[in-house]
What does this fold into?
Amino acid sequence: MKSEILVIKLSDLDNVAVVPHAKGLQKGTTLDDELIVQEYIPMGHKVAITDILKGESIIRYGQKIATADDDIKAGQWVNEHKISLPVPPDLDSILYVKPTVQKTEPLEGYTFEGYKNNDGSVGTKNLLAISNSVQCVAGLTEFVVKKIKKELLPKYPNVDGVVGLNHSYGCGVAINAPGAIVPIRTLKNIALNPNFGGHALVIGLGCEKLRPESIVNNASDDTSIFYMQSESNEGFMAIVDDVMSLAEKHLEALNERKRVTCPASDLVVGMQCGGSDAFSGITANPAAGFAADLIVRAGGSVMFSEVTEVRDAIHLLIPRAVDEEVADALKREMLWYDDYLKLGQADRSANTSPGNKRGGLSTIVEKALGSIVKSGTSPIVDVLGPGEKIRKKGLNFAATPAGDFVCGTLQLASGMNMHVFMTGRGTPYGLAEVPVIKVSTNSVLSKRWFDLIDLDAGEIATGAKSIEEMGWELFKMILDVASGKMQVAADKLELHNDLVLFNPGPLT
Ligand code: CA
It folds into this structure.
């Protein structure tokens, strides 16, 4: 039996270590190097492993995460009340040097059963998507979705489901403001998500600012747009009947789709965190990063996102850009977000939540250093603006806010066909549009939420499994879920969140 791990230190440079045990560390506990714990320290929190003087740096992951506000003695608890946030890395002073690309061995022979699309993308589900151009028709969409589920779906056994893509955009917005491009292209690109087989149907009202033609990909096809205000219908049920008959045409086509064997290179995996804790950067994110590297080696695509959670680690990401253009694009997205936050009189420290802090994440810098680990070690081949469609295989940075539903919605628009979501505090997060594998950062959560979590990466902290073993397990789970062989917890329980658009433009 392996001896119990009392604290976890990730770099020799670190002057703090994290407590992995569910019961925390009791006062008086002796650590490996004769260090005595001075006060009770809860699970996920940090203990000083050397004396740290006022003004000195707190080092975790070999990087500065904060400055000590007072002297901290070895063995004392290091939390957000004793430290201050350092300034973020200065974008102008990070110089780009083209990295020497290390050849990695291609990973061959891994496949999944997916639905091939005409545009070359591959779905992991076969769904009818009903989008709309304005929130006014959300009620009609909901009504029709329920009716289709009950009356039509049983006739089309190869169709996995029907989803209504309701949102809050479409009217009462400054549609020509520069920021409007983000929600508009998001809606347009979501309709192109591989899981909808190129068959999204758009319901419009008729008088709204956002024209359905601008978000549908095949406007010339008279089965793709329906206007509720069309004068040919009298009464609500006539309207519903019209939508039902359009939907049926799409269902007939979707029902022809069958799963076929596809190479792992057809995966487009969106990585995200929500409700992070101090274990995120030790367990779940390193395992996700390992799986991300496997996907990239197999020729597939991985996206990581959440600008405020990479901002403080940008100096570690820029050197991984494949060329200067990508490095500049990374800086550009950071700068755009700095300005966006400034406009709202906030900064990146607004990111950390009370739950993050209770989980041991004292600052956004600490959160960011743990967060970027999920990108693995591959070169960054491209940077996508919010809601842009993926263009290149390999590791992509898709710029999004960090809020779970906004990030998930934007990654859907970028074309993800699988979602991997790491959580430490616990969230029931799920999306109807794409399978979401939920990975727990600690075993306490996986045990308590045994039916909500798909994979327990907490076993890394206890020493039961290595990062490599857990990374392979996640990679194989991604293939099984993508094939429809395994159903994720959120789908079993039908726990699905709303789409939430990112709209940096003004309302009118
Ligand atoms: Ca998030």
Remarks:
- Residues 127-254 form a domain with the Ribose 5-phosphate Isomerase B; Chain: A, fold (CATH 3.40.1400).
- DSSP finds twelve helices and 20 strands in the chain.
